[in-house]
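ok so i was messing around last nite and threw this chain in just to see what happens. nothing serious, just curious
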Amino acid sequence: MPFIIKQFSVEKKTPAFLFLIRELGMTHKVAQRMISKGRLLCNGEYVMKDSFQLEGKVELIDFEPQTRGLVPIFVTNDFALFDKPSGVLIHPQNRHTPYSLIDEIKHHFGRDANITHRIDQETSGLVLSANNKKSERTLKMMFEERKMQKRYLALVHGEVKEIMDIKEPLLRREDESAIVRMVVRVHPEGKYSETLITPIQYFPELDMTLVEAKPLTGRQHQIRVHLFHVKHPIVGDPIYGQSESDIVRFLDRDIDSSERIKLGGAKRLLLHASQLEFSYGGNDYVVKSKTDFLKECYEAMTT
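result:
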């Protein structure tokens, strides 16, 4: 469990931030961040001010990364790229999450290393991490300014015969249903969204097509919703293309692998972040995933 509770006994009153700096070697900024996140307790009460005088029983809820052997496929002084397996979370959902990609990132590159963007838990493929706070700010801004060119592979239902430039506005807002709140949809009041779809190979025995998807905007679930909208949902998608009752069952983890194959064609979402292209520090980078995505597709379609 990456989140652990460290216990201390403080006999003489000490400012909270000074205690974290002296006892645990934190910088002032890190100490302030730990306090503001409610990670420090004194005699069972949360400490919310860095000037609070600690005395007595002190507890710190700290993150200690737990590696499972995943190593980056590309590393520089400022950033690294990981080939994330399907099923691995990017960030822990709560303090009881046993493992996420952030474990590996901080295990390899230290406390200041962090994620610069996100992909869904079931989506596999490339994730870019920053090795320090300066590069984190720069890389996150590059994603916001669309200076990162991302390419995905997806196995979709039906035959895609030609290139499609899908320009459909996407909306995600609260509505009358808890399910609707989770689901992004094409809607005239939504934000402009564009995805370029290129067919690669059609498999007639499966009536499925391997496509490349290039998102030209960065909306949540953009590729999934756009492909569903043009009647080519991604194989294994547990939300887009499924009934509301089955979506609820999936979210409640009440559907096993064999039933997912029957409902959607695969036991995982067959979407893979395959390539990332960008310029940084005067250098141009084109990094490609090393995963055999078609092999993973076939494995995901069998019990």
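not much to say yet. DSSP finds nine helices and 16 strands in the chain.
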